[in-house]
Design brief:
single chain; 122 residues; alpha+beta; five-stranded mixed beta sheet; 4 helices; 5 strands; 30% helix
């Protein structure tokens, strides 16, 4: 498997207030396009972001008041930076674990829009 491109949501969007993301406390959808044209998606979370989300959920009531957290196709990392994401993806490809973690995109709805956002179906 050879990589053609890696799209990182946080490189095209800001946080909810439009500020740059804190790489140590954020999450981001990642789309990897391979040379064969296939696209694969996973969501990367920083370790700190899991704590921030469960703390938020404990006050909003989500996920049984923060008692659990889940996300499909989740990858946990120390920081959400292009360098770290590329390192992880290369490691997963080398370890032949990429297809176990990333999910193949099957529709155009899995494509980022002009603003760089994914639809809710991804």
């Amino acid at each position: 498997m050879q990589i053609q491109s890696i799209w990182i949501e946080n490189e095209v969007t800001g946080d909810v207030l439009g500020h740059p993301h804190d790489p140590k406390d954020t999450n981001s959808d990642i789309i990897v396009t391979l040379i064969d044209g296939s696209r694969w998606v996973a969501t990367f979370f920083s370790y700190t972001n899991i704590t921030s989300l469960t703390t938020k959920n404990s006050t909003t009531g989500e996920c049984l008041n923060g008692r659990y957290f889940w996300a499909s196709d989740m990858v946990l990392v120390d920081e959400i930076t292009r360098e770290r994401i590329e390192q992880v993806i290369m490691h997963l490809l080398t370890a032949q674990a990429f297809e176990k973690i990333f999910v193949r995109c099957t529709t155009d709805a899995d494509e980022p829009d002009k603003a760089g956002r994914l639809s809710d179906s991804a």
